[in-house]
Amino acid sequence: MIKSLTIKNWKAFEEKCITFDKGITFFVGRNGIGKTTVLEGICLSVTGRSVTADFHELVRDPNLSAEVKLDIEIEGKRVSIRRKFNRDRKLLAEMICDNNKQRMTWDELTSETLKFFSVDEMFFSRLTYMSEGEVYNYLKDPPSEALNSRIQEIFGIRGLQTLENYIRIIRKDRSSSIREISSELKTISKKKPADESQIEILDRKIMGLKEKEKSLQEKKDILFETIREIEEKYINYEKLKELCGEIVQSLKLKITITTEVFDKGLRDFIKRLEAKIISNEEDLKQTQALVGSVQSRLAYLNDIKQLLQSVVAETAKKEEVPCPICKRLIDKPLASSLIAETEKQIEGTEKELFNAQNTSSDLQTKISGFRKTIQMGRDYETKINALPSSILKKAKPLTFDKIDKLLSSLNESLNSKIREQEKNNSELEALKKEIYKETQELASMRAVVMQSNRLNLLKERLRIAYEGQMLAEILHEAIKFTIQRQKDYGLEPIFIQISHLWDKFRPESKWKIALDKEGIIRIQSKERQYGFSNLSGGEKTVLLVLTRVMLCRKLAPKIDFILIDEPLEHLDIRNRRSLLNFLFRVNKAKIIPQIIVTTFEETLIRKYYTEEKTRIELLN
Question: DSSP 3-state assignment of 60?
């Protein structure tokens, strides 16, 4: 129940506060005085929007804010709804319920308000509030969505509607599955599959071939390792032969192919050189001793020569002088003769020293050469000993003949193993080709079996999909029928009442009124069926008012009021009085306890209706 409405700085009113009570309230006045503003203010308070235009643009003074405030009473609760705005934006949205003030967003206030009435915004703005232009909007945009939503809620068919949507999805899914399966079936070969026994025989054959392949592969690995070992031995024996050749050539050993190179050749050679070094070192010592002795004698003779020369120098003063050594008198001729003899001895001694020094140098060179040769021999000995012991052990006695025989034997063995390896590889390659061929054959047979199984599975799935589609179609039709029956069952009493009321407006026939799926009113007499568009403007207005009043009562039981804008405008005097009489009867019967109507028909209302709970608000 609406208790009061306050409008500030919006549309026709600078500030207006209107109170309401049960019964019918008529707002009367000339055009543009603000009759529709009252109804629009109520609608704006509840839904947060205006039906006729953008509420922001309808602010009177752009420098001030506008406000609508609606007080209602519902189920014993007093609720106040307040909205404040200007031309640019929404400023305030609040609700006071049982003295509890709560601010919220604009849309939250709309949602909370509509929860009290258990309707949506479309139902309130198209059915609870019948605007002046609704007659013209009705055919272009019928309120089918709002009606269907409330019908589902009131008559308990929302669950059936959900089930219908679910069944529709299942139908679509089954149709899609049928198309996909049918398309896939076209791609599958219809070739007859092989017997399981044939597949099993071929499988066992491949397993046997793989075992043989494994054996040949193991043999291949063994042969590879054997050849590698033989090649390694062959290389080592070639190295040994090369070393022996170098030893003979470098050390100039005089040996035959059967002479033992290492023990009898190299080691005996080193021993002989070591013996020569010892012998030469003895000779060197003697030679070096001789050199020392000759050098001493030469020094003695040079000293004698110097003394004799001093005697010759002194004889220039005296005829005879005493000898520095024997003290006997020596004259100049004797001294000169002695010097000549001494020089002859010195010359002989120097030759002897030269020969002794050359001999010493030659001996040192020989000893050094012997030692270098020995070192070379020991280096060769080290290289030989660096070879694997198994190689040296097998090559003893180390002769060229023995090495050649070993190399020849290894070469024969290597060639034999290589031939064996080639034969094994050839067998293995042929076996692999056979395995590949048989495996491809087995894969092909299994693929045919799999395709056959897939074909059978797809056929089964296709059968199930067709069964599911048929069942879904049956269920869908059954649910549609049930929903329609439920709607008809719930709406039939309303349409009977509307038809009865319409009989009074059009008494020339018996009428049957109903709504189609789109929410458009359909009228049928005994003679023919009428569309809503076939009615005159006044008839459309009357029928819409009758229908809205009865539907609101049934579909929105928590809303005990209805708002009607200018319902008498296009009616003749008879139908105006009939429509007013209908509204009074509905109100007195408490079908709609509160009716708010705008009209310019003050004279008609005042002349014919002075009933209790009827109120006329004259706007000027």
Answer: coil
- And the tokens for 543? 């029928």
pLDDT of res. 608: 64
Instruction: Choose among 113, 139, 140: nearest CA to 128.
Output: 113
Instruction: Tell me which residue range forms the domain holding 268.
Output: 260-398
Which tokens hold the place of 261? 């190179």
Residues present in the chain in total: 620
Which CATH number fits the domain that encloses residue 573?
Answer: 3.40.50.300
Residue 266: closest CA among 373, 411, 108: 373
Cα separation of the two ends of the chain: 26
Output the 3-class SS for 533-593: HHCCHHHHHHHHHHHHHHHHHHHCCCCCEEEEECCCCCCCHHHHHHHHHHHHHHHHCCCCC
Longest CA–CA span in the chain (Å) reads 207
Query: How many whole angstroms separate alpha carbon 164 and alpha carbon 168?
Result: 6
The two three-digit tokens of residue 338, written as one number:
């002695």
Question: Which stretches of the chain score pLDDT less than 50?
Answer: none
Report the 10 Å Cβ neighbour count for 43. Answer: 24
Q: What is the pLDDT of residue 611?
A: 63
Question: What's the Cα-to-Cα distance from 274 to each of 253, 284, 525, rounded to whole Å?
Answer: 16, 15, 150
Q: Per the structure block, which two tokens stand in for 341?
A: 């003899």
Residue at 581 is within a domain: yes
- Confidence at residue 547, expressed as pLDDT on a 0 to 100 scale: 86
Token pair, residue 197, equals 């026994």
Tokens of 139: 């055919």
- pLDDT for 609 equals 66
Model confidence, pTM: 0.54
Strands 594-599 and 320-322: unpaired
Check residue 610 and give its pLDDT: 65
Q: Give the model confidence (pLDDT) of 190-233 as tens digits.
A: 778 878 888 899 999 999 999 999 999 999 999 999 999 999 99
Which domain-ending residue is among 372, 398, 424?
A: 398
Q: Does residue 467 contact residue 131 with C-beta atoms inside 8 Å?
A: no
In the numeric block, the tokens 């089964």 are attached to 460
CATH code of the domain in which 368 resides: 1.10.287.510
- Look at residue 350 and tell me if it is in a domain: yes
A 10 A CB-CB count for 235 gives 12
Question: For position 514, what pLDDT does the model report?
Answer: 84
**Predicted confidence (pLDDT) per residue in 441-494, tens digit:** 989 888 888 888 888 898 898 899 888 888 888 888 887 777 777 777 777 888
d(C-alpha 183, C-alpha 516), whole Å: 41
**DSSP states along 422-452:** HHHHHHHHHHHHHHHHHHHHHHHHHHHHHHH
Q: What is the DSSP string of 360-406?
A: HHHHHHHHHHHHHHHHHHHHHHHHHHHS-HHHHHHHTTT-HHHHHHH
Question: How many domains, the chain?
Answer: 2
